[in-house]
C-alpha cells in the first residue's frame, strides 16, 4: 500500500514533469533504478504472494488453458475455457467462469520514457477474482504493479474484449460491456453498469450504482448513483 502511494506520487505531473527530474543526473538515476528494480523485484518474497497453488473440486478446465498451477489458487466449480492464460499470483473464487482466450495476471501498460529510452516497469502484484464472477472472451485483467492486487468483485461480469488495467478495484455486482477500456488504479464501486466500448481514464473513482452509457469517455470522477 505504501509502495503504491509512493509510486503514484512519483508519477504525478508535479514531480515527473518537474525541471529537477529532467536533469541529466536524475535521468541517469531514474533509468538505473528502474533497471535494478526490474531485475531484483521479481525475486523478492513479496512477489511470491501465492506460495502454493491449489485447484478446487468440480472445476472444468479446457486442456488448451495455460495456468501457472504452482502459483494460482482456483476455487470450486470454476469453468476455464480454451486458450485461457492465468499467470502467477492469481486467486480465483468459487463458481467463476473465464471464457476463451482471456488473459488473467498479465503485465500492465506501465512504461517510463527516460533519457530517450523506453523502460518497462516489472509488475509484482497479482489478481483477485471474486465468487460467481464471469470473465468474457479475450478479456485482459492486468496484475497490479506493486503491493496491491487488481480486484474483480463477486458476481461481477467483465464482457468480451474488456481491458482491466493494473491496480483497479472493481466492486460487487458490476457489469462492464464488451470492448471497454478501464485505466490503471481506478476504483469502481458496487452495482456499477458500464456500457460497451467506453474509455475510463487512469486513477478515477466511479461511485456505487453509477451508470456509464455506451461509447462514453470518462475523464473525471463520477459520484454514486449518477
What do these coordinates show?
The protein has a single domain (2-218), classed as Hexapeptide repeat proteins (UDP N-Acetylglucosamine Acyltransferase, domain 1, 3 Solenoid), CATH 2.160.10. The strands form four sheets. The protein has an eight-stranded parallel β-sheet, with no helix packed on it. It contains three helices and 26 strands. A hairpin with a 2-residue loop joins β10 and β11. The mean pLDDT is 86. The protein is of the alpha/beta class.
CATH architecture: 3 Solenoid
CATH homologous superfamily identity: Hexapeptide repeat proteins
User: What summary fits the major beta sheet?
Assistant: 8 strands, parallel
Distance between the termini: 29 Å
Mean pLDDT: 86
Can you tell me the CATH class?
A: Mainly Beta
Overall shape: it is globular
* Helix segment tally: 3
SSE string: HHHEEEEEEEEEEEEEEEEEEEEEEEEEE
- Report the radius of gyration as a whole number of Å: 18 Å
Fold-level CATH name: UDP N-Acetylglucosamine Acyltransferase, domain 1
Strand line-up across the major sheet: 1-4-7-12-15-18-21-24
User: What fraction of the residues are assigned to beta strands by DSSP?
Assistant: 25-35%
Low-confidence stretches: none
Fraction in helix: 10-25%
Topology, number of strands: 26
Question: How many structural units, i.e. domains?
Answer: 1
Structural class: alpha/beta
